[in-house]
Amino acid sequence: MLGPEQPVILHMLDIPPAAEALNGVKMELVDAAFPLLKGVIASTDAVEACTDVNVAVMVGGFPRKEGMERKDVMSKNVSIYKSQASALEKHAAKDCKVLVVANPANTNALILKEFAPSITQKNITCLTRLDHNRALGQISERLSVQVSDVKNVIIWGNHSSTQYPDVNHATVKTQAGEKPVRELVKDDEWLNSAFITTVQQRGAAIIKARKLSSALSAASSACDHIRDWVCATPEGYWVSMGVYSDGSYNIPAGLIYSFPVTCCNGEWTIVQGLKIDEFSRKKLDLTAQELTEEKTLAYSCLS
Amino acid sequence: MENLDVLQKVVVLLGCLYLSWRIVRYIWSFLDVGKDPVIVLVTGAAGQIGYALVPMIARGAMLGSDQPVILHMLDIEPAADILEGVKMELMDGAFPLLKGVIATTDVNEACKGVDIAIMLGGFPRRKGMGTKALISKNVGIYKTQALALEQHADPNCKVLVVANPANTNALILKEFAPSIPEENITCLTRLDHNRALSQISANLNVHVGDVKNVIIWGNHSSTHYADANHATVDIGVGYKSVRELVANDHWLDSEFITSVQQRGDAIIKARRLSSALSAASAACDHMRDWILGTPKGTWVSMGVYSDGSYGIQPGLIYSFPVTCEKGVWSIVQGLNIGEFERGKMDDSARELIEEKAWAYSYLH
């Protein structure tokens, strides 16, 4: 996550029913004799866990159970993220960088922002890198190229089924230089439909195959998100991050919305000036609308 | 004056040579001559340890951050869907070092061209199952896999057997893959080694990275002997022996040994699942140190083909202290072995001889 020269101290938090399992994880971390790992805390106390934290990866949340309505999931998570926000606000390092993974990721991040006003709003983000990497993977498979030769897809919006994987600015490194993905794939029909739904539904496909959700790739993309944020994106590359919207691309300000960003000196910047065609515009607005609705729902749960 | 002249000329010449070398290196860096990918086989890849291990390999934790890899993942037919799911997730990981993934239930396809083989797959110990029964279930599996590696793997393939009974599975593999050099067939005791380091570090309240040179002797079973007699701790101004710092021989000769032996059970008790994370990490450590070399002054524990060193019967896969250089391990020789240690080492050897006899009885 932070490079082979950066020592780390891990603070692991979970709920009391999981305390023993968490301690088992701590035992395994110690048994792995990792040279960079300078300390491990396994705790069920949010205050102890949040003390002096520089990077917070929020994987915890109330999972959706069978038969639960969206409002129920939302209300459970809103109270969790409100209390974790207070703990971070009071005890974390001032420049703490936060990545929310647990769903509904964007809205959980928004609640966290609301209740941790001392944390710079730029430092509160949510994970859409998994979808971004999935999109790169689908393109690389379609074109039979190495995934490291594909770049600059964009995931717009909510980390949900309304996310919009956009390849209009994506390129592939070829012998003859960088070529646009649309030109190489030569199948707009696929790019505008099946490709989009495959990326949107990849999570479900993994559950179907593994009978468990995608832990490996989610963890890997969380590392990618933080690493690129802290250590900078390579020249000419952008990545997707759910960040606090400032009105760019006519997306309402005040949402946590996934944009294309570059990172430098520990700060992200939205890539500006990209052309948005009509098809994309509709998709961008649809997912913004869903986020606005989620925001309203979340606030109603708070009152 | 003449000498000064010559000196000046030499300095200028050296300066020019240095600059030329820098320029050549700079140009070379643009040619992007990356390393050829190494093919890594993981058997039993659909399981818990496999799930922890494959992203470590894909990220470069096993072979270094500049070594591309191609993963061959093998498992049995009932696990084919799960294995496919793992392959999908590896793809979704967009790992720059991962140049290809094969997910298969065909052992021949899996073994093709393999440079490194990590054998996680095996028949698991069921409740109440003794070691003899466990061996009977695994002998056939390891014979088949040995034949496939023999036929299809790279002749210099390096093998690490993890699935229990690890030492004896490795021995069977060696018997049926005679083309693979016997020094290339090893089994994992690095997990026990790392656990021993961590027990000492906890006792002394130091960082585990400051403790080194424990030894795990023998079988990866309850008879393995965790030996701290030659272990040291980095105290900043040099090294001190663990025995001296712990100052509790009784603990080192009893509780310490049993806590390392029973650590696996302690993890199962806490997690309700066995230790996948630390086992995967130890497998990476084992391979990485073997291929890239152990740091100077440090040795590690590996289950290797015994050559009679330390009075251990040759022809067993027995865990010894080893150093590694240029892809070759060597047993650390000349360590003082006291009576207590001798007893423990011989107990473990006796168990391995018994396991070997059982294994052979099931082969005929």
TrEMBL record, chain A:
Gene3D superfamilies to which the protein is assigned, alphabetical: Lactate dehydrogenase/glycoside hydrolase, family 4, C-terminal (3.90.110.10), NAD(P)-binding Rossmann-like Domain (3.40.50.720)
Positions that bind NAD(+): D14, N77, V101, A102, N103
Active site (catalytic residues): H159 (proton acceptor)
Binding site for substrate: R64, R70, N103, R134
Reactions listed under catalytic activity: (S)-malate + NAD(+) = oxaloacetate + NADH + H(+)
Name of the protein described by the UniProt record: Malate dehydrogenase
Domain Lactate/malate dehydrogenase N-terminal: start-end pairs: 10-124
InterPro entries: L-lactate/malate_DH, Lactate/malate_DH_C, Lactate/malate_DH_N, Lactate_DH/Glyco_Ohase_4_C, Malate_DH_AS, Malate_DH_NAD-dep_euk, Malate_DH_type2, NAD(P)-bd_dom_sf
Gene Ontology MF terms in the entry: hydrolase activity; L-malate dehydrogenase (NAD+) activity
EC number assigned by the record: 1.1.1.37
One Pfam family from the record: Ldh_1_C
Domain Lactate/malate dehydrogenase C-terminal residues, every copy: 128-297
Keywords, ordered alphabetically: Hydrolase, NAD, Oxidoreductase, Tricarboxylic acid cycle
GO biological process: malate metabolic process; tricarboxylic acid cycle
